[in-house]
Amino acid sequence: MIKISEATEADFEKIWPIFQDIVKNGHTFVYSSDISFDEAKSIWFDTKFATYIAHVNDEIVGAYVIRPGHRDLGSHIANAAYIIAYSQRGKGYGEDIARDSFVQAKKLGYKAMQFNYVIGTNKVAIALWKKLGFTIVGTVPEAYQHSEQGLVDIHIMHKYLDWLSHEIETKGLD
Question: Is residue 42 within a helix (H) or strand (E), and if so which, with residue range?
Answer without folding.
Answer: helix 37-44
